[in-house]
Design goal:
The complex is a heterodimer of chains A (325) and B (635). With 325 residues, chain A is an alpha+beta fold. Chain A is 38% helix and 18% strand. Chain B is mostly helical. Chain B contains 19 helices and two strands. The chains are: A alpha+beta (325), B mainly alpha (635).
């Protein structure tokens, strides 16, 4: 069975310390500095403690010797002053990093709107021309080398958007608008995941960021703006008919058809996506069958109900979905 | 019970008759004695620690490998919610309060806490609240939105049913118990100290308890409002947190963390007091820098109220505002640093004895420091952008709470067990317990730092094999098994030593504080003669023929009230009798709160027994009347 990871390697296995792009690099550097200083301080204090416990004591030494008391006073004062100084350095570095991160990104940024849903991500590429809008789910394509500014909303509960290798995280809170920017400098697939507990399937609310060279990205965006392809193959045609006359349309939309509900992910170009069920399964024919038949078994609690389709109808719907490139 | 050395047997018998609880079950139910209540409080809180640990064990079993099918999301969410709620509300705060309620009166030379009936009431309310939560968990209707219960997830729209109401009401029970404990501690410390124990001679443990009590007083009202608002949104359709109707989802987070951050220090500050007592005893000298230690405790208490926003750094709060909280969070490291340096100086100057309590203190310093350093990291706004809500935070908070809370607490158990039971715990088993605990805790939680940095978010019931988080999670689970073994050893030690441990005598460690100046276990009246304190280390500084207070009545419960600053004798106070009314009042409170979960009419139904029991509580008995007559005759 092909797994998610070995179909295309996630860059750096989504570690915050394999950074890509300016934001994540700054954060990585700040982290490295703090780890190093903390490790040194930990060793020093532990050594002082062990020394205090195990040092050899002179015969008849007075534990309350006033001369030593004065020496200790000096040492402790010095240690406190040193700690305060180190904290000031940390504070300065922290502010400096904040400033560099939150400043307006250089260059013309790409705007993407992300809306959190229990338990998937709606991704919208808006434009001054409404006919240029494109909507997808759980997969964010970005051009390499161009900053991307996200604005976040939530349709239900709090979520948090996080791509460890590209930058920090930001909460999606109903009634609030939040935003975040990052830039990917290396082409590839990055994994992101919801970081704020949001109910049953918080664990399986992932997404992927696919960074592509600008021309390929532009091509992808143009394709996403299209309405869905009309099926030519008879099985797929039957699938489309089943789809638009079944409960599927209660939640999903496929542009160019009568299916127009926006409760679940937009399926207009579902076949072009790498995963289904918010980064849970690779988008293969087998997984589509499994997901449509038994979503509650694969992702207990998901809002997608089990579908009561006969085997023939099911095959037709899967065939139809596979044409939606 | 035999009288202490030098106590007149007649005097002892008289005091016993007046102060002792009745025997049997009725005596147990009606007891208002601080040691009896304190002991059951400590045991109950420890049972909740074991239950909370059991939840954690199940979670570790589920996370041992990717896509494990042991526990589904529904059960898992209940487990982590109940784990957090238990450890914070039913274990950590209660056990710290309980240690205070047992030892503070002894340490300040008092006969009992200031409000003994309130004390019993607080315990019963706490017991009912905790039991309610676990009954719900066993019925598979336990809360499932986290111990922080963020809205809107915890609101009526996304959490129908009674699960979240159960959580909110459990918290209400524990708020009452904590507030009641805080009031008693403050008044006992301020008004019942033995003559001579001026504020600047108070043991550091008592100082820590005082600071903790004030923090409870200022922090609990916030969570009380928060849970009340949540209950109103859920029960009677207000929209305080509903953004669709003009409410604010972020308001919950402010209210919750304005309580939630001090809460961490409410656990940590008493532990610091325990550390100071143990360090002083086992190095045979007073803690270095007493004024700095006291000021550090107070500063920690104050500063802990200015950090709450660092739990909300990724909610899109304006940068300038966040910066303030970074600075404040960094600043709180300084008083903690001062205390660690002072302890090291104390050890350096003194002659350390490597007993089990002392080992736990050494373990505390090295383990807690890791939590302290990671705390400084996540207090930085930019660093927190990555670490927030990941396993890095799980690692951090367990290093702080286990390192800074439970290590000292275990040390304190070994230290004070002989005072409570009259027998010493086995040092040999204790060393094994310490070693396994130290290894287990670090093996469980250190890998979680790395998991967080490799992208593992918190509160996930499973993860995909492709993420590569499997091996480190397995390591953490192995660590958890070692932790379980160490706690089992501790329980074995407690059970064996209860009957087979060596006799402790009055002061087995040659400790300086007053509780070691009476028998182990102490008699019902604590001290036959209320001591007069002559120095900061009460027993070490005691002159050979030390003065005591005489003239307190022995034919009725009478206590000495002293002045706040200098503890000069002020007046004598008639102390209330034991009674069953606190228990009945707690039961009525339980009826009110629990029915309220199911219907707003609970308020109307519950108010009747509650009013009756409060009247009963204050109703004078024949005995009260007789005592009053005797008092008047004497005057």
């Amino acid at each position: 069975m092909t797994t998610l990871a070995d179909s295309v390697a996630w860059i750096g296995g989504h570690s915050v310390h394999v950074p890509d792009g300016p934001v994540a690099l700054l954060l990585d550097r700040l982290g490295d500095y703090m780890y190093a200083v903390s490790a040194v301080l930990w060793v020093l204090v532990t050594a002082a403690l062990l020394w205090a416990v195990f040092r050899r004591r002179a015969e008849g030494e007075d534990p309350n010797d006033p001369a030593r008391e004065r020496r200790m006073q000096r040492t402790v004062t010095l240690a406190v002053a040193a700690s305060a100084a180190i904290l000031f350095v940390f504070l300065f570095l922290s502010y400096d990093t904040s400033r560099a991160m939150t400043g307006r990104p250089a260059g013309e940024p790409l705007q993407i709107r992300v809306t959190g849903h229990q338990w998937w991500w709606e991704v919208e590429y808006r434009d001054s021309l409404p006919q240029h809008w494109a909507t997808t789910a759980n997969e964010i394509h970005v051009p390499v080398g161009r900053p991307v500014v996200f604005d976040f909303r939530s349709s239900d509960v709090n979520h948090s958007f996080w791509v460890p290798q590209l930058g920090g995280k930001r909460d999606l809170i109903p009634g609030q608008e939040t935003s975040l920017w990052f830039r990917a400098d290396t082409a590839g697939v990055y994994r992101g995941q919801c970081a704020e507990f949001c109910g049953y399937q918080h664990a399986k609310m992932a997404f992927e960021v696919i960074a592509e060279p600008p021309p390929r990205f532009a091509e992808w965006l143009v394709q996403q703006r299209d309405t869905a392809a009309t099926p030519t193959d008879s099985l797929a045609q039957r699938g489309q008919l089943v789809f638009v006359t079944s409960p599927c349309v209660m939640c999903h939309s496929i542009s160019g058809t009568t299916a127009g509900s926006r409760i679940g992910p937009d399926l207009t170009h579902i076949a072009s996506r790498r995963t289904i069920a918010a980064g849970t399964l690779l988008n293969t024919q087998g997984n589509l069958f499994a997901w449509i038949t038994d979503p509650q078994g694969l992702k207990p609690g998901t809002r997608m109900p089990a579908t009561q389709l006969g085997p023939k109808d099911l095959a037709a719907v899967v065939a139809y979905l596979e044409t939606l490139r | 019970m035999t009288p202490a050395v030098g106590v007149d047997p007649g005097e002892h018998a008289a005091l016993e008759r007046v102060w002792r609880d009745r025997t049997g079950l009725w005596g147990w139910l009606t007891s208002t004695e601080h040691k009896s209540i304190g002991k059951r409080y400590i045991i109950t809180a420890f049972v909740f620690f074991l239950l909370g640990g059991l939840n954690a064990g199940l979670m570790r079993a589920q996370l041992a490998r990717p896509e494990n099918g042991l526990i589904g999301p529904d059960r898992y969410n209940q487990l982590f919610t109940v784990h957090g709620t238990t450890m914070m509300f039913l274990f950590a705060v209660p056990i710290m309060t309980a240690m205070g309620l047992y030892f503070v009166p002894l340490m300040v030379g008092a006969r009992n806490v200031a409000f003994p009936r309130l004390n019993a009431y607080g315990y019963w309310v706490y017991l009912i609240g905790g039991t309610f939560l676990y009954v719900q968990l066993l019925l598979n209707t336990g809360p499932d939105t986290g111990w922080f219960s963020y809205v809107p997830l915890a609101g009526p729209g996304f959490s129908p049913g009674k699960r979240v109401d159960t959580w909110a009401q459990t918290v209400t029970f524990t708020e009452i118990a904590a507030l009641v404990g805080a009031v008693e501690l403050i008044v006992t410390i301020f008004k019942n100290r033995a003559p001579g124990m001026s504020l600047n001679r108070m043991p550091l443990f008592v100082w820590a308890m005082l600071v903790m009590a004030f923090m409870i007083l200022f922090a609990m009202p916030w969570v009380a409002s928060a849970t009340l608002f949540l209950a109103m949104d859920r029960l009677i359709g207000t929209h305080l947190f509903n953004p669709a109707e003009g409410g604010d989802a972020l308001l919950w987070q402010h209210l919750f963390w304005f309580f939630g951050h001090p809460e961490v220090y409410i656990i940590f500050v008493p532990a610091l007091g325990m550390v100071s007592e143990i360090v002083s005893t086992f190095t045979r000298r007073p803690v270095f820098g007493y004024p700095a230690m006291v000021l550090s405790l107070i500063t920690t208490g104050f500063l802990s109220f200015s950090l709450w926003v660092h739990h909300m750094f990724v909610t899109g709060i304006p940068e300038l505002g966040s910066s303030f909280f970074t600075a404040a969070s960094f600043m709180i490291a300084i008083p903690t640093g001062i205390q660690i340096f002072c302890w090291i100086a104390t050890i350096w100057a003194g002659r350390p004895r490597l007993t089990v309590p002392f080992l736990f203190i050494l373990g505390f310093v090295v383990t807690f420091m890791i939590g302290g350093f990671s705390g400084v990291m996540i207090a930085s706004v930019p660093y927190d952008q990555q670490a927030h809500d990941t396993y890095f935070i799980v690692a951090h908070l367990h290093y702080v709470l286990l390192g800074g809370g439970v290590f000292p607490l275990f040390g304190a158990f070994y230290f004070w067990y002989p005072k409570i039971t009259g027998r010493l715990l086995s040092e040999r088993l204790g060393r094994w317990h310490f070693a396994l605990w130290f290894i287990g805790v670090n093996l469980t939680f250190f890998p979680m730092h790395l998991l967080g940095l490799r992208g593992m978010p918190r509160r996930v019931y499973t993860y995909l094999p492709e993420t590569g988080w499997g091996p480190l999670n397995l390591l953490a689970t192995i660590g958890a098994v070692i932790v379980v073994l160490s706690v089992v050893l501790f329980l074995v030690n407690v059970a064996l030593s209860r009957w087979k441990g060596s006799e402790a005598g009055e002061n087995p460690w040659d400790a300086p504080t007053l509780e070691w100046g009476t028998t182990s276990p102490p008699p019902s009246y604590n001290f036959a003669y209320v001591p007069v304190v002559e120095g900061r280390s009460a027993l070490w500084d005691r002159s050979p023929d030390h003065p005591v207070v005489t003239g307190l009545r022995t034919d009725m419960r009478e206590v000495l009230v002293t002045t706040l600053l200098d503890a000069e004798p002020d007046h004598r106070h008639r102390h209330p009798q034991s009674t069953v009314w606190p228990l009945l009042t707690a039961l009525s409170t339980g009826v009110l709160f629990i029915t309220l979960v199911y219907t707003p009419w609970g308020l109307v139904i519950g108010i009747v027994p509650l009013t009756i029991s409060f009247i009963g509580w204050g109703w004078p008995t024949e005995r009260d009347h007789q005592e009053q007559l005797r008092e008047e005759a004497a005057a």
